[in-house]
Design a protein that fits this description.
The complex is a heterodimer of chains A (423) and B (455).
Chain A (H helix, E strand, L loop, with lengths): L2 E9 L3 H12 L4 E4 L8 H4 L3 E2 L9 H12 L1 H5 L10 E5 L2 H16 L5 E3 L1 H7 L9 E5 L3 E2 L2 H14 L3 E3 L4 E7 L2 E6 L4 E9 L5 H6 L8 E4 L2 E4 L9 E4 L5 E4 L5 E4 L4 E2 L11 H14 L7 E6 L3 E3 L6 E4 L6 E5 L5 H18 L22 H5 L3 H6 L3 H4 L5 H4 L17
Parallel strand pairs in A: 1-2, 1-11, 2-8, 4-14, 11-21
Antiparallel strand pairs in A: 3-7, 4-6, 5-6, 9-10, 10-11, 12-17, 12-19, 13-16, 13-18, 14-15, 15-16, 20-21
Chain B lengths: L3 E4 L3 H12 L5 E3 L21 H5 L3 H14 L4 E3 L2 E7 L2 E6 L2 E6 L2 E4 L3 E3 L12 E3 H11 L6 E6 L3 H11 L3 E7 L3 H11 L3 H16 L4 E2 L3 E6 L6 E5 L5 E5 L2 E5 L2 E3 L2 H5 L4 E4 L4 E4 L6 E3 L2 E3 L8 H19 L9 H21 L15 E3 L4 E2 H9 L7 H8 L12 H12 L18 E2 L9
Parallel strand pairs in B: 1-2, 1-7, 2-3, 7-21, 9-16, 10-11, 10-16, 11-12
Antiparallel strand pairs in B: 4-5, 5-6, 8-17, 13-14, 14-15, 18-19, 20-21, 22-23
Classes of the chains: A alpha+beta (423), B alpha/beta (455).
The complex binds flavin-adenine dinucleotide (2 copies).
One flavin-adenine dinucleotide (FAD) binds next to helix 1, strand 4, strand 8, helix 4 and helix 5 of chain B.
């Protein structure tokens, strides 16, 4: 067994691991990035591509805005734009209660200095004639953007590699432990690596790594279903989201419309499956047709999903371990890690190199799961709950905070038949 | 009683329905087409007086028998034409009929979805006037139309000469039949082809008929390009002796044999294995067509076998269904059918040898040639993406990075070429670069799909 020395071993080559490695290498650290598959093929490569600033968890704005500044500079940082496009984000409401919710979101955004345009029915008709009149109000944030998730992580990893990061693909971390002043990390192919610091950015699989250090978080894997249409003349410039969560969509300049909708479906990280049940395709199509009637004749050609880690309070774990010095976690991004990915990588690199970061990360401490954690309203609304409970993740094993999750209703999302083909 | 649903009303599906109906089951037979018959035994559109006896030649008897049997079968089954099956969820088929959603529950599913053409890209293959070989036959049988007046046939398939003769019968000028596989491959395949002497004789007769009609026939050609600015004007290739030739034409039919339509089998949970004879990923079944619990595959959708094998395997799959349901007919026809099917499939392996898919030779497709016509991805785009640092190897990753196979047809057309080009570029065996995965919808469905009506 060869033991290699590095300043930092990063477990997981998604967007989070790649950006972390990149920023550490810029600070002259020797980094080994270990990825069980290929970089950027999991959540980071399958997501919707939204870089949304509106409607985030209030405590996340400093991180989120810092991250957006990095996205805006992506071409300078890594030499590739990755289809970054500042198209703006239109949040729409179908009734007065939803409008109030939007106004509350907007007040938070504005308090952090974002410009938000408040739109009424007349503005909507004038600016977005394709939008159904069911939408009674909307807020528009011009700084929100999109990028192509399939391209970003490999591009960041290439840039990191050019800065000297050693990237190992098809290499699974099986054991990791504290050893003297540092860490020993072992991989399935029998190699072992010694390092001063360890970063756990293993996505939906991060719970296993955390448990190696005696800590955990009630992470469970799910996949938001995604759909795409054939190309259609380019007319939908901003990305659009209904605040009731039924539909979110955007058009890329080459014409395809990408759409998604809740509830999210349970995913299987062991067999690497994130199924999209056809009934969800039908629901998403129905919701899109109700919001943009002109798209009735456009066809859905493809669907997919990915395996994302969710936590009951719908905010991630970012920061130092509560048990082990030198270990840093960044996982459980609850469907919004693409936007904050660069910022998370930068903050982790600062914590490792400087022992601190200017960005407040207290709300994201893993220590919060030692007490009772309030379940977010979204967590109750936006998932196939019985399915989530049946999946048997840590979520189901633990005393469940919600009766809905504990009840074992036959699972609609993980069909027993037909058997899912293994990937 | 168990609800048995058959998808595909070609020879395989019709024969399966017949066996089940004879036992008093009333299977549901679903097909996206307007008329039963499938691909090979396609029926002309109503009101079109085509001389099918002339078109079908030696196969006219079987063609008539299948359609006559189907007419008798109709009252005994629940036949649902114009019904596309686009997804499978638990034990329900998601379908679209006349723009409306429809679900069909089932206990047992027989998938007999047939095959489509396999194509190899070459410069100019996306020009208007280039058709797949099967497409050229389909417009002829369905509509009585021709793809052009001066038609060239290019590829590697026994159907090249058949289609050329059918085009001649409808008075098209066949300017060339260009077979990319060398004549010696046909000689080498003779032992396997001898498994079904009657069909072998038919193939030889086609060639003889083309010869006597003085249709220029080339073996072992290397295609260079289909030429034209806005539409096809010529086909350029090296003949078997390496001499460059240019033949003017206004249409090209392109076909390298068939590939099974396996998306529904995949959604239903079938496993896949790479088949070295066909160089295709095929669903894994037992000899009767079982592919999983309550799941049966038959016809060209299981493995390429031709129309006779489709009828035999449809019968056999239905017998397996009956057997598994505990309904055992007094005479067990299965052993004889298995032997017949094995012989017919051996013959198809011979055909795959005689009319060989270019396979690794696709590594020579020039960089500027479009491989994925839905997304306009060239061979060079694929190679450049793979060459990048941390570039993809697996075809699904190549697809993610380049969009090859991501468009309207979901890689059904470009998939086999992508497999070969990626494998050759990586210096790996074709199967080592993985299999393009499918998802529902297997064909595009409109956003405005009407909601299901509940009776
Ligand atoms: C369908 C979908 C849509 C989404 N839409 C958006 C959106 O629009 N906007 C947004 O901001 N966010 C979105 N997200 C969320 C976002 O994609 C994720 O939060 C983000 O990509 C998480 O990045 P990651 O690096 O933590 O995870 P991942 O990309 O999953 O990376 C983790 C990596 O760790 C590897 N790994 C795991 N265990 C091991 C081990 N033991 N050894 C070695 N390697 C290991 C995995 O193979 C994986 O590659 C979406 C997510 C999904 C699934
Ligand atoms: C275009 C083409 C032309 C051919 N021409 C000839 C020829 O001239 N002579 C010859 O000997 N052989 C020909 N063949 C070979 C022929 O396919 C087989 O010999 C034979 O037809 C196979 O029978 P089958 O029942 O397996 O499939 P098919 O006859 O192909 O029948 C499959 C049926 O399934 C239906 N189907 C497929 N997917 C779905 C879905 N998702 N939902 C609903 N319905 C679906 C199709 O509409 C079709 O009717 C041709 C093949 C093709 C592809």
């Amino acid at each position: 067994m060869t033991k290699r020395q590095a300043d930092v071993v990063v477990v997981g080559g998604g967007l989070i691991g790649a950006w972390t490695a990149f920023f550490l290498a810029r600070r002259g650290r020797k980094v080994v990035l270990i990825e069980k598959g290929v970089v950027g093929a999991q959540s980071s490569g399958t997501n919707f591509g939204n870089l949304r600033l509106q409607g985030r968890f209030p405590g996340q704005y400093p991180l989120s805005l810092r991250s957006q500044a990095l996205w805006e500079d992506i071409e300078n940082l890594i030499g590739d734009r990755c289809e970054f496009h500042q198209s703006g984000h239109l949040y729409i409401a179908f009734n007065a209660a939803e409008r109030e919710k939007l106004e509350a979101y907007a007040a938070v955004s504005e308090s952090y200095g974002l410009t938000i345009e408040h739109l009424g029915p007349a503005d909507l008709t004038r600016r977005y004639p394709w939008l159904s009149t069911r939408a009674v109000a909307a807020t528009f944030s011009p700084r929100d953007a999109t990028a192509n998730p399939r391209l970003v992580t490999p591009a960041v990893a290439r840039a990191a590699k050019a800065l000297g990061v050693e990237i190992l693909e098809h290499c699974t971390v099986t054991h990791a432990r504290r050893d003297g002043a540092g860490f020993i990390v072992e991989t399935a192919d029998g190699r072992s690596f010694g390092s001063d610091h360890l970063v756990n950015s293993a996505g939906a699989w991060a719970g296993e790594i955390a448990e190696m250090f005696g800590e955990s978080a009630p992470l469970f894997p799910a996949g938001p279903p995604q759909f795409v249409t054939e190309p259609f003349p380019y007319f939908l410039f901003p990305s659009v989201q209904a605040v009731d969560g039924t539909v979110i969509f955007r058009q890329i300049p080459r014409g395809n419309i990408i759409l998604a909708g809740y509830p999210r479906t349970a995913a299987d990280p062991i067999r690497n499956r994130a199924p999209v049940p056809p009934s969800k395709t039908l629901a998403a199509m129905r919701h899109l047709a109700a919001v943009v009637p002109a798209l009735r004749h456009c066809h859905v050609i493809r669907v997919w999903s990915g395996i994302e880690g969710y936590l009951p309070d719908m905010i991630p774990v970012i920061g130092p371990s509560a048990t082990t010095e030198g270990l840093f976690h960044a996982f459980g991004f609850c469907g919004h890690g693409f936007q904050i990915g660069p910022g998370v990588g930068l903050c982790l690199s600062e914590m490792i190199c400087d022992g601190r970061t200017e960005t407040p990360l207290e709300p994201f401490s893993i220590a919060r799961f030692r007490g009772t954690v309030a379940e977010d309203e979204k967590f109750r609304r936006e998932f196939d709950r019985p399915a989530a409970a049946e999946k048997g993740g840590p979520w189901a094993r633990r005393a469940s905070p919600s009766p809905a999750a504990a009840r074992s209703i036959p699972c609609a999302a993980a069909p027993r038949w037909p058997r899912c083909p293994t990937r | 009683m168990a609800e048995v649903v058959i998808v595909g009303a070609g020879p395989a599906g019709i024969r399966a329905a017949g066996v089940l109906a004879a036992q008093g089951l009333r299977p549901i037979l679903v097909d996206e087409g307007r008329q039963a018959g499938g691909q090979g035994y396609r029926h002309p559109s109503p009101g079109l007086a085509l001389d099918m006896d002339a078109l079908m030649g030696t196969e006219a008897g079987k063609y008539r028998a299948l359609h006559a049997d189907f007419a008798e079968l109709l009252p005994l089954i629940d036949y649902r034409p114009r019904t596309l099956v686009w997804g499978i969820e638990e034990r329900r088929l998601h379908c679209m009929r006349d723009g409306r959603q429809m679900t069909i529950p089932f206990d047992v599913l027989v998938i007999a979805t047939g095959a489509m053409d396999r194509v190899a890209p070459l410069p100019g293959w996306t020009l208007p006037g280039v058709f797949t070989l099967g497409g050229a036959q389909a417009v002829l049988k369905d509509q009585g139309c021709l793809i052009g007046r001066r038609v060239a046939f290019l590829g590697a398939s026994p159907l090249l000469s058949l289609a050329a003769l059918q085009y001649r019968k409808l008075s098209a000028q066949v300017v060339a039949v260009c077979d990319t596989s060398p004549f010696r491959d046909k000689i080498a395949a003779l032992p396997r082809l001898a498994a079904v002497p009657r069909t072998l004789a038919r193939g030889i007769a086609y060639l003889a008929a083309l010869k006597s009609a003085r249709v220029p026939l080339f073996h072992g050609v290397t295609p260079l390009a289909i030429e034209g600015d806005r539409e096809v004007t010529a086909l350029r290739f090296l003949d078997g002796r390496g001499r460059e030739r240019r033949i003017t034409c206004d249409a090209v039919a392109l076909g390298y044999g068939l590939k099974p339509e396996t998306q529904l089998a995949e959604l239903a949970g079938a496993r896949f294995a790479f088949d070295a004879h066909f160089r295709l990923w095929l669903p894994v079944t037992d000899e009767d067509g079982r592919a999983g619990e309550g799941l049966y595959l038959a016809g060209d959708g299981a493995t390429i076998g031709g129309a006779d094998a489709a009828e035999a395997s449809g019968t056999l799959a239905a017998l397996a269904v009956l057997h598994d349901l505990g309904l055992r007919p007094s005479v067990d026809e299965r052993p004889a059918l298995r032997r017949r099917l094995a012989r017919l499939r051996r013959f198809q392996h011979g055909l795959a040898r005689a009319f060989r898919w270019p396979g690794p030779a696709l590594s020579r497709v020039p960089d500027e040639v479009t491989v994925c016509r839905c997304e306009h991805v060239t061979a060079g785009d694929i190679r450049r993406a793979m060459d990048a640092d941390l570039g993809p190897v697996d075809v699904n990753r190549v697809k993610a990075i380049t969009r090859c196979g991501m468009g309207r047809c979901q890689g059904r057309v470009c998939g086999p070429a992508l497999q070969e080009i990626a494998a050759a570029h990586a210096g790996l065996e074709a199967e080592a670069v993985g299999r393009l995965r499918g998802q529902a919808p297997v064909k595009p469905i409109p956003i405005g799909l009407l909601a299901e009506e509940h009776a």
